[in-house]
Amino acid sequence: MTSARPSAPRNPGDAWVEAPDGSRFWGRFGAAGLLAYDPERGVLLQHRVGWSHFGGTWGLPGGALHEGESPFAGALREAQEEAGVPDGSVVPRASHVFDAEVWRYTTVIADVIRPFAPVISDPESLELMWVPVDEVADRPLHPGFGAAWSSLREQLETRPVVLVDAANVVGSVPDGWWKDRAGAAARLRDRLAEREAAGVQAPDLDLPLDHWFPAFAMVVEGEARRMEDGDGSVRVVRAAGSGDDEIVRQARAFADAGLAVTVVTSDRELRERVSAAGAEVRGAQWIGRGGADAGALDGFFEGAGFVGTAIQGVLRAIAG
What we know:
Layout: E1 16-18, E2 24-26, E3 31-38, E4 42-48, E5 58-59, E6 62-64, H1 71-83, E7 90-99, E8 104-112, E9 125-131, H2 143-154, E10 160-165, H3 166-171, H4 181-198, E11 200-201, E12 211-212, E13 215-220, E14 234-238, H5 243-256, E15 260-264, H6 268-276, E16 280-282, H7 309-319
């Protein structure tokens, strides 16, 4: 086992931060790690080299952020540097933040959409291994990861979807939508794509952790059905008959499949129906509430497609 850190050019973020109680944390601008999750193989773990902080323990590929770097971009960069994670192989699903006031560590949970074999690509790893979820806690874990693991594990099967009542949301703003219903629905689709890319704060979905990236779907009816699908990041469902009936059908199918469903509508009767089907409900104005800075994900999606990629296929298969 290597006993000393190799000499190398240092980034300004590669420095210790000391808390008032004497605790020390690595990363002048904070740190981040990638929890890559593959349902068939488990979680990608790194066996840390001896000279590293808490050397000999198992944790996530990750490290100090660069100045001005978002935690999402930093987690992916570190995972690429330490484990050879290829571009386009993962998409983010959620994030968990440990905040020590003087320092923050962000764990980015990401779904593997293109399986890959990890590669030891720098001297910070003794081993890289896909570890089944049930076996993670059996290893000597890095204390920070060990403290967060139970919360993270509980959410590995949580997959949120936001289902939007397009007619109700479009109709809530008197901007002349009635002159071109298909065009108004297309503009809503594009707004939803932006919201999907930015993600949603966990409290806005009544979910734990810090931030989520749900898939978005919208139901259109009548003349709005003539709209185009766009780039496919938002699933467009065309109701053959009643839009309300289709929303209830979709919400029930998603909920029965184990997805965490949030329906966006201000229609009182529909709100009651989808609640009975197992969905959370938000009013039409919810769409306008801000998520994260969309630029926070710059660099994450080079070749990876859209945030909803990981479960849009699941939505189509479940609800037809």
